[in-house]
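Format notes (please read before filing issues)

Several people have asked whether sequences and structure tokens are stored in separate files. They are not. Every record keeps both together, in the order shown below: the sequence lines, then the token lines. Line labels are part of the format and must not be stripped during preprocessing.
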Amino acid sequence: MKFFLINGSVLGPALMLFLCYQTKRWMVFFDSLAVLSALVFGNISAMAIFQIIKDDTVFMTNIHGLFLDSVFLITGAYLGLYLIYVLSKQTLHQIGDFFPKR
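Then the structure lines:
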């Protein structure tokens, strides 16, 4: 599992960079998916924190139940891959004209 996580965090953004180099449609797709993921991730987090405050429960023990929500984990994982992709894209832009100008 560790092997899959480490390789996925390298190969995922590399594949995203390659696809964006092929056509700008992928860039729009990845950006749109990141916005949607950020909205879902943030709303799930906010609702969980609101419920904890509303129920006046112990914060540290109940907030960890959030990690059992698969939608939360999937959107968070995509945002992590997207962050590495954006940082890589910016680095390549600074190194040279790897991507065509918009």
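For reference, the curators noted about this record: Residues 52 and 62 are 7 Å apart (CA to CA). The helical segments are 2-22, 24-55, 59-62, 70-95.
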